[in-house]
Amino acid sequence: MNPNADTAKVGRVLQGAGFVAGAKPLRFSMDWVARPLFGILLAAIATAAVLAGGIWFAVFVGAGAIIAAYEWHRMVANALFIRPTFITAFTIIGALYVLLAEPHSMLAWAVLALGAVANALIALAQERPPLWQAGGTLYIGAAVLAIVSLRMLAPHGALLVLGMLLAVWATDTGALIIGNLVGGPKLWAALSPNKTWAGFFGGVAIAAIVTAIYATAFGVSAMQGGLFGAGVSVIAHAGDMLESWAKRQFRIKDSGGLIPGHGGVLDRIDSTLLASIALAVLVLVIGIDPLFGARP
Description:
The chain is mostly helical. The chain folds into two domains: 51-153, no CATH class; 155-296, no CATH class. It contains ten helices and two strands. The chain has helices spanning 3-17, 31-52, 54-77, 82-101, 107-125, 130-153, 157-182, 197-216, 222-249, 265-286; strands at 186-188, 192-196. A hairpin with a 3-residue loop joins strand 1 (186-188) and strand 2 (192-196). Helix 6 (130-153) packs across helix 7 (157-182) and helix 8 (197-216) packs antiparallel against helix 9. It starts with a helix and ends in a 10-residue tail after the last helix. Mean pLDDT is 84; it is low at 1-29.
């Protein structure tokens, strides 16, 4: 053994931990408390809304979507965000009203398309990029109609939506914890410098474990439940990266600061948006039941 080498190694460890003069000290952050506290609170509210179903779930989803739309249009239109935000808000309200009244009709999607066209025209009049304005209306609005349709129309819709949300939440938590513990190569440094491959695979693994346990409570095999969770997790990661790409285009870090420890509402639901759309296509368009006949 080399005593000098051992001493140097200990010194480096202590310096990294902040015990040696000149090192950056480890500081307590309120995010350590705020992030899990508000995460649990929001998850409880979302779960209650899913179980309530009907107009209560639609109101919950619509309210969150309108706030997310406000953050989106403020991001892409800067000071000229008020008109496009109102158009998207009224579009979401109108589309949800039509969906609740005529759940098997395509009229709600036609309302969404009209709102997107209106925002594109306003963007042109304001000399703003029309695709960004219309795209926000379509993307957020499509996710709203998708998740509410899943709850209303899918077999065991409440179980399916809750399973998807559990997978998304497990993905976010697993990616955050394992990514910070393991570190390693970046997932896509140009878009999100803090995300790593370890966090990606950790999020997928945790989501698979959580949904495997969830599925067995309703008569579904752990393997099938785990595959469902892993699939949702991959799409959730893609949704997260998609929002990161959009924020990069406008040079902002967070879409807002409404939720302590999480940023904006759009930051909180970015993974759920794409996951909802993908799951609705899988279940309501293709006709696949990813929970394989779960018992309520």
